[in-house]
Specification:
The protein has an eight-stranded mixed beta sheet with strand order 1-2-6-3-7-8-9-10, with helices on both faces. The N terminus is likely disordered. The chain is built from twelve helices and ten strands. The protein has 351 residues and is α/β, with parallel strands linked by helices. It is globular. Strand 1 and strand 2 form a beta hairpin.
């Protein structure tokens, strides 16, 4: 296929004995065919290439996807190169949350409207206990989880970067931005949620730990599997629901494994969100989905109010118009719209 233009030209030479009128039409057709083949080959060569790997951090093995190639520069040697992005998913998802968005984020459109493929390095990571990452070696806080993600950036020789988060990923992004201001130059938060303060508990257990009784109950008839599918089947298409069901099953199996070893991850509701939000001094973009907001509000989680409270704690913050339809999985379902918002924000900051 990639040799199509030259093979077409050879075919033209072989058919030179055709009548002149027919030759002219035939040659014009083949020239156009060769031209379009060349365009297809060029486009294919510019497609976003994604590789994957695992980094053994102090806390555990972290799986990642990246558009960074061995020849990619993250140090700004290429004057057109853009600041890399590290992307952190919601719970109970994986790097798959960014599957559709990665190609849009990695492309950059210059002032002339020309697309430059793979001009921004994107790294999406499976948080420990999710996706293809291992479980943590010990109980850990969200800050410690974020430090493991930073080890992946170090491994890939990425110095300064943009932190992108969705729900749980927002906590990791703010953790990194507030504690490593020399490394994080902007933050993008999708459906950021500030948990309402909980009343003091008389229980001897610490809020740092998840509740052990929340272990997945496996049933002999397999209904524990269909239950995961069914809870989203009314509002997700079957293909995406299959991917999300897979992610949640993986998370729950790893959660069982952790609990059997008494390994816990700090619950997001116990994280000091306010300190991290107020401690982040770089530019922040907050995005919420209209559908996600409606869903959270309907089940009593008040995303409308908690989103506004979260934004009010931030210093240099912009709020994008709500993504529509903007369901809970908007980064998958509205990838192009979401990516356009992110890319325009980053361009406005010179990133």
């Amino acid at each position: 296929f990639f040799d199509a233009p030259s093979r077409i030209c050879r075919h033209m030479a072989a058919n030179a004995s055709l009548p002149h009128k027919h030759q002219k039409m035939y040659h014009s057709f083949l020239f156009l065919l060769a031209f379009f083949c060349t365009l297809i080959v060029a486009a294919n060569g510019a497609m976003t290439t994604i590789s994957k790997g695992i980094v053994s951090t102090a806390l555990g093995d972290v799986h990642y996807l990246t558009t960074k190639s061995s020849s990619s520069s993250s140090e700004g040697n290429d004057q057109n190169a853009k600041t890399p992005c590290l992307a952190f998913h919601m719970s109970p998802r994986s790097v798959d949350e960014y599957r559709e968005a990665i190609p849009f984020l990695s492309e950059y459109t210059d002032d002339k409207g020309d697309d430059v493929q793979n001009n921004r390095i994107i790294v999406a990571m499976d948080e420990l206990g999710y996706g293809f990452s291992g479980i943590p070696k010990r109980s850990c806080t969200i800050d410690e989880m974020a430090d493991a993600m930073l080890e992946v950036a170090n491994h890939l020789s990425i110095d300064r970067f943009i932190a992108i988060g969705s729900l749980l990923g927002c906590f990791i992004s703010l953790s990194l931005a507030s504690r490593y201001p020399d490394r994080v130059c902007a933050v993008v938060l999708t459906n950021v949620y500030h948990y309402p303060p909980k009343p003091p508990s008389s229980s001897s257990s610490t809020k740092e730990e998840e509740k052990e009784e929340e272990v997945w109950e496996v049933k002999e008839d397999g209904t524990h599997l269909t239950a995961i599918w069914n809870k989203r089947s009314s509002w997700l298409d079957p293909k995406l629901n299959s991917r999300i069901t897979y992610d949640e099953m993986s998370y729950l199996l790893k959660k069982q494994e952790r609990y059997s070893s008494k390994i816990f991850i700090q619950d997001a509701s116990a994280y000091d969100f306010e300190s991290a939000a107020k401690g982040t001094k770089c530019p922040i973009l907050c995005i919420r989905g209209e559908g996600a907001t409606t869903l959270f509000d309907a089940i009593g989680l008040d995303l409308s109010g908690q989103f506004e409270k979260a934004v009010g704690m931030m210093e240099d913050v912009e709020v994008a118009p709500a993504v529509k339809p903007g369901g809970l999985n908007l980064i998958n379902q509205d990838a192009e719209q979401w990516s356009e918002i992110v890319n325009k924000f980053l361009a406005s900051k010179g990133l």
